[in-house]
Every structure is written in structure tokens, then in C-alpha cells.
């Protein structure tokens, strides 16, 4: 029975909580209502708390204050997506309340949970009920009440979690979108799984097994000489399927043609590939035609065999955390911020070489890779900010799920940070086109960019990642979807049919400028055919076709 939580125990509790949410991340992802592939909640929460795991494993916190502080700092920098940012805020408030504490009893932990809720509510512009905010608020309230009743820390946390799950069940009726889909809030579920893991550690229960905690796959390099290795790169990766029954036989045939030792395992949601090849990049690119790449591991077996033969430790992907830390810190010091050379600088978030080129041509100083299927962490965005040689840096998130992570950068840098709330790439492009680079003050630029956003309508054509009944549409995995300003516009088995519907809508809106950014899976010939659909429907509009190179979306369309 634990009456007090020490720094060492808090560390183990967070590690256990991380394992719990990671083990269930796909189940959380499946709670996402909208069928479009995105930076799913389970993945974002797992990766966010994974940042804390990395930092905690590097230290032996002497107090609960220190353990909570390390956790909160890592979560803040590692936060991905809105759910990750809110999770970081919950732990930031908790850390603040535990400051100065060597240990924490039930009352202290409950009060800290309450402080975490306050921090999250204060940071969210328009708090919505029926979300992780509601679940965390009522969970913390019960924790405070249970502590006041004299319950010890285990009993208090158990009682709070039970109340949390009662609240989670009610989120379906609190949120119209959740009610329509018949699911509970994904973020609330993830938060409770973390608390359950923390409680399980208090009780001495074993940590759940996750793919990350198992032994990494390794080739038997010691039995090989470099000359005996025909294909150098041991390549392992996981891809979430574009749709459930997609045939992997063409992929199997291709991979066999470029390597050996091929093994493909699959379930309804994803497939995992192991192959030895000399062109791992080709293997990954081909696999992405069948879904969304989630994880990859590539090791050079020839250099490993040489190192082992020389009696050295063979370098592997297990060493990447240390390598990354060294690269980021330059050894022991944090990366230095670029000295200001001008008053204003601009940073955009997007995915695709073509889109990056567009933003740079418009004056962006830096581009952070990220978007719908991979939300960049606050740390990644912060690095981009620090690399911009300007006193004030304007950030264009270009995705609604990245805005909160971008906003966290303001407290982490000495530079002035202004986040323009762009939710799509066309909004970001339009904002950049309205920048007066000679403006005297930042507010003038902010007003111009923000005001321009409302003038553009964004359409996107993608595919359904899962079956869904949404907004009256009976959607099947693999169907093509058209979105307009984030709302489902239509679904069809033909991209051309959806493009025709969007073109008619553009004509009704009397759009004068239409830009089509075609994705990595679209040929320029097909893009020109789509453009002609818009030119035919909107004869008075100027239609431009540009290679965006973006994943997930076949087309991103700007209509002004």
C-alpha cells in the first residue's frame, strides 16, 4: 500500500500510463468520428507522452516535484495535435501544484489534478464539453472529494477513474457529433487509460506489452560477413491500410523483385513488412501506395557485420535517441537560436515538396514538415522558429489540429511568436500573399493575414480510411471523399465526379481564382484533366495547376 508518491514512483507511474495508452492507441484512433485519415488522437497522445518517457528514462528524479517537472516539460515540447497539447496542459498544471513537494499523498495529487484541469481550460479558447476537458474536470473533482473523505492515494485514484468512465459514457450525449456516430470522446478515453496505467503501477500490476516495449527485430549479423550480404539494408515498416481488403499481392511481387527475406504480416487495419533490400527508400515509397506509413526501421547490415567482425558494438536504430539528442543539442548545449537579421520572419507547416516550394516562393523563411497524417510536435515547430533569423516569427500551421501546438512555442522562445490560425494550405498561401514585408508593426501584418483567410474556400479530395455513416453519407473504406472547408461535401467512386460537383460549387460561388495542388499519387496528366473540369464549369475563372506533392489528399483546391 502506497501512502506517498515519491519521485521514483511517479516516474514509474508515467511510464506505465504511457504503456497503457500506447497499447490501446489504435482503439482510441478508431473512436475518431470523421472517416478522413488524420493525425489520430491515440497516435498523438501516445507520441506525446512517449516524449516524457524518453526524458524520464534519462534521469532518476529525487522528488515528485522533479519527476512531474521533467514530465511536464517533455510533454510540452513533444505535444502533437490538440489532444497532445491538452494532455501536456493537464500535466503542466499538475507539475505546478506539486512544486516543492518531496512526495505527494492523496490530497496533494488530487489538488494537482485539479490544477491541471484549470490550466487546460484557461488555455483553450473555446472549451467544448463532451471532450477530454469534461472528463478530466469531473475526474479531478471526484479525486478532490475522495481525498477529503480520507481515502488513500490508490483508493482516491480508483474512485476518480470510475467517475471518469461514467463521464466518458455521457460524452456521447453531450456532443452532437459523437452522438451521431455513437462513440465516446477519444481524448477522454486516452486520458483515462493513462490514469489507469498510473494506478496499476501503484498497485504493482505488470505493465502491458506494447510493440515498442518488446525486443526489437534484429538480423543475426554475427553469422554473416559483409561479402555474404547480397542486400544491405534490413528494412522493417508498418503501414496503416488505405482500406480493409486492399490486396498486397502487387506489393509482395514488387518487394520480391528488389530484395529477399520478405515477410508480410497483416490484420484488418495495417500490415508490417520485413525485407532485405539495397533500395529501402523505393520499398517505402511503393508501400505508401497501399496506405499511410506509420513506423520504419532501416539498418545497414554490411556496416554492422564489419563492426561486429572488428569487435565493436554494431550501431543500430536503438542508438537513434542518443544520436538525435546529440544532433539537437550540439553535444551538451541546446541548439542556438538564429540571430535576428530582420524584424519579421515566416514559418509554414506543410507536407510535400511542391507545397514547400510555394511557401518559400511567397517569402516563408522556414518550412516544418507536417500535416494531416503527422502533426509535428511543439518541439519541431520550435526548432523551425529558432532557425528563422527574425525578431518576430509568424507561424502558419495550415491545419486545425496543429494550431495549439504552434501556440505553445510562444512560451518557449525569446522571439516574438504570432500564430496565424490557418486551418488549410490555401488559407496559408492566401495569408502569405497578403503580407506587407515593409510594414512598420507586427499587428498590421497580423491583421492583413488574418483578414485574408476568410476570402478563400478550401476543397480537398481524399479517401475514406474506414467505413462510416456520417452526415447522411454511407461511406465505405476506399471511397473518394470531397471536403469543403472541413465539412463533408460528397462521396463517390470517381474522383472526376467529385471534381465536377466541386467545380459547379465554385461556379455558384463565382470564384475568380482556382488553384489545384495535386498530390504525390496524381500524375500531371490527370491533374490537367481535372483542371479542365473546372475550366469548363468556370469559364471566367483563372485556373492554375501546381504540383503539391502532398500525401493523403489527391487534390487540395483553393477557390477565391
Question: What's the topology here?
Answer:
Elements lengths: L6 H17 L1 H5 L11 H16 L7 H15 L2 H17 L8 H18 L8 H17 L4 H22 L1 H6 L4 H17 L30 E9 L7 H10 E8 L3 E8 L2 H8 L3 E10 H9 L10 H10 L12 E9 L2 H9 L4 E4 L8 H10 L2 E7 L6 H5 L8 E4 L5 H9 L8 H12 L3 E7 L4 E3 L2 E3 L4 E5 L2 E6 L2 H14 L4 E6 L5 H14 L4 E6 L7 E5 L1
Parallel strand pairs: 5-6, 5-7, 7-8, 14-15
Antiparallel strand pairs: 1-3, 1-4, 2-3, 9-12, 9-16, 10-11, 12-13, 14-16
Observed structural traits:
6-stranded mixed β-sheet; 46% helix; 4-stranded antiparallel β-sheet; alpha/beta; 21 helices; 560 residues
For the largest beta-sheet, the strand count, sense and barrel status come to: 6 strands, mixed
The span between the termini is: 64 Å
- Can you give the mean pLDDT? 86
Low-confidence stretches: 212-227, 329-335
Helix coverage percent: 40-55%
Widest sheet: strand order?
Answer: 13-12-9-16-14-15
The count of strands amounts to 16
Radius of gyration using CA atoms only: 25 Å
Walk me through the structure.
With 560 residues, the chain is an alpha/beta fold. Helix content is 46%, strand content 18%. Strands 13-12-9-16-14-15 form a 6-stranded mixed β-sheet, sandwiched between helices. A 4-stranded antiparallel β-sheet has the order 2-3-1-4. A 4-stranded parallel β-sheet has the order 6-5-7-8, with helices on both faces. Strand 2 and strand 3 form a beta hairpin. Helix 1 runs antiparallel to helix 3, helix 4 runs antiparallel to helix 5 and helix 7 runs parallel beside helix 10. The chain is globular.
Amino acid at each position: 500500500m502506497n501512502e506517498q508518491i515519491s519521485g521514483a514512483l511517479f516516474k514509474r507511474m508515467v511510464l506505465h500510463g504511457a504503456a497503457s495508452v500506447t497499447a490501446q492507441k489504435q482503439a482510441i484512433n478508431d473512436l475518431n468520428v470523421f472517416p478522413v485519415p488524420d493525425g489520430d488522437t491515440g497516435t498523438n497522445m501516445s507520441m506525446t507522452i512517449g516524449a516524457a518517457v524518453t526524458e524520464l528514462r534519462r534521469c532518476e528524479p529525487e522528488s515528485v516535484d522533479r519527476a512531474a517537472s521533467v514530465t511536464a516539460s517533455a510533454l510540452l515540447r513533444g505535444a502533437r495535435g490538440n489532444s497532445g497539447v491538452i494532455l501536456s496542459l493537464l500535466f503542466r498544471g499538475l507539475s505546478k501544484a506539486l512544486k516543492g513537494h518531496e512526495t505527494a499523498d492523496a490530497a496533494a495529487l488530487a489538488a494537482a489534478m485539479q490544477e491541471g484541469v484549470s490550466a487546460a481550460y484557461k488555455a483553450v479558447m473555446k472549451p467544448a464539453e463532451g471532450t477530454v476537458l469534461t472528463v478530466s474536470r469531473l475526474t479531478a473533482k471526484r479525486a478532490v472529494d475522495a481525498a477529503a473523505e480520507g481515502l488513500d492515494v490508490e483508493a482516491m485514484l480508483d474512485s476518480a477513474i470510475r467517475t471518469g468512465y461514467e463521464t466518458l459514457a455521457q460524452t456521447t450525449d453531450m456532443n452532437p457529433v459523437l452522438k451521431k456516430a455513437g462513440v465516446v470522446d477519444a481524448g477522454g478515453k486516452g486520458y483515462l487509460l493513462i490514469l489507469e496505467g498510473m494506478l496499476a503501477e501503484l498497485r504493482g500490476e505488470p505493465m502491458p506489452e506494447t510493440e515498442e516495449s518488446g525486443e526489437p527485430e534484429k538480423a543475426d549479423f554475427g553469422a554473416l560477413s559483409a561479402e555474404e550480404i547480397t542486400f544491405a539494408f534490413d528494412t522493417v515498416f508498418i503501414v496503416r491500410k488505405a482500406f480493409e481488403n486492399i490486396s498486397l499481392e502487387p506489393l509482395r511481387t514488387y518487394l520480391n523483385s528488389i530484395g529477399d527475406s520478405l515477410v508480410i504480416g497483416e490484420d484488418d487495419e495495417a500490415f508490417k513488412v520485413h525485407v532485405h533490400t539495397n533500395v529501402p527508400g523505393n520499398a517505402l515509397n511503393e508501400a505508401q501506395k497501399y496506405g499511410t506509413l506509420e513506423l520504419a526501421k532501416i539498418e545497414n547490415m554490411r556496416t554492422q557485420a564489419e563492426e561486429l567482425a572488428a569487435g565493436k558494438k554494431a550501431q543500430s536504430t536503438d542508438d537513434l535517441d542518443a544520436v538525435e539528442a546529440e544532433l539537437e543539442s550540439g553535444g551538451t548545449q541546446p541548439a542556438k537560436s538564429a540571430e535576428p537579421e530582420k524584424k519579421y520572419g515566416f514559418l509554414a507547416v506543410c507536407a510535400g515538396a511542391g507545397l514547400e516550394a510555394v511557401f518559400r516562393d511567397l517569402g516563408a523563411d522556414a518550412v516544418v514538415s507536417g500535416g494531416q497524417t503527422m502533426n509535428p510536435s511543439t518541439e519541431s515547430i520550435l526548432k523551425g522558429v529558432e532557425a528563422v533569423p527574425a525578431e518576430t516569427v509568424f507561424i502558419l500551421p495550415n491545419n486545425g489540429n496543429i494550431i495549439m501546438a504552434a501556440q505553445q512555442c510562444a512560451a518557449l522562445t525569446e522571439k516574438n511568436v504570432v500564430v496565424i490560425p490557418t486551418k488549410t494550405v490555401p488559407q496559408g498561401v492566401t495569408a502569405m500573399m497578403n503580407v506587407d514585408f515593409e510594414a512598420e508593426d507586427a499587428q498590421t501584418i497580423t491583421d492583413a493575414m488574418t483578414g485574408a483567410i476568410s476570402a478563400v474556400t478550401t476543397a480537398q479530395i481524399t479517401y475514406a480510411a474506414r467505413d462510416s455513416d456520417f452526415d447522411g453519407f454511407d461511406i465505405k473504406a476506399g471511397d473518394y471523399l470531397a471536403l469543403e472547408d472541413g465539412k463533408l461535401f460528397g462521396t463517390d467512386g470517381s474522383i472526376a465526379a467529385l471534381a465536377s460537383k466541386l467545380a459547379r460549387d465554385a461556379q455558384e460561388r463565382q470564384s475568380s481564382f482556382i488553384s489545384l495542388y495535386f498530390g504525390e499519387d496524381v500524375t500531371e496528366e490527370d491533374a490537367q484533366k481535372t483542371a479542365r473540369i473546372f475550366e469548363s464549369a468556370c469559364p471566367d475563372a483563372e485556373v492554375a495547376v501546381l504540383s503539391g506533392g502532398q500525401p493523403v489528399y489527391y487534390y487540395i483546391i483553393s477557390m477565391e
